[in-house]
Design brief:
160 residues, three-stranded antiparallel sheet, 25% helix, elongated
Length: 160
């Protein structure tokens, strides 16, 4: 037989064996059964703890700093990008812009930019769940709390 035919036959046999074998995973149902048997007080305690973690927080001007990561376009080098746009949330200003690098082959290239924001007005921030750290944090912009100022109205005069 020709070497190519033998190679093709071995390759097709390997692929067929891989497709026919499949993968199976046996699930241990004992953990699921024990989870459903937990008392109801345990579940309410967990809900109460979650509600305690998710409290809004008020930050004075200059006290809330967070960053937003802007990635370069897919399959583009940083030197090829000639423009972009950053939206500044109400009550914030840009504190700093710095680039971050990513591994590219044996070296690295600019993967995008981290834009750091700081509040210039008092804001109320709602925490969000950060899956990377598995906790709640204040890494999103807040809502400006409006401070009501009393303004003097027109003075009334008695006319005789």
């Amino acid at each position: 037989m020709d070497k190519r035919k033998v190679g093709a036959l071995i390759l097709s046999m390997g692929l067929a064996a891989g497709l026919l074998s499949g993968c199976t995973v046996e699930q241990d149902t004992t953990e699921i059964v024990t989870d459903t048997k937990k008392p109801a007080t345990m579940a309410t305690t967990q809900v109460e703890e979650e509600q305690k973690k998710v409290e809004k927080k008020t930050f004075a001007a200059g006290k809330h700093v967070y960053f937003k990561r802007y990635y370069n376009a897919k399959h583009k080098y940083a030197e090829d990008i000639m423009g972009g746009q950053i939206t500044i949330p109400e009550g914030y200003e840009i504190l700093d812009i710095e680039n971050f690098t990513e591994k590219y082959g044996y070296g690295s290239q600019t993967g995008g930019f981290d834009v750091w924001f700081i509040n210039n007005q008092e804001v109320e921030v709602e925490p969000i769940y950060n899956a990377t750290y598995e906790t709640y944090d204040y890494s999103e912009p807040g809502r400006v709390t409006e401070v009501l100022k009393e303004e003097k109205g027109p003075e009334l005069k008695l006319t005789p």
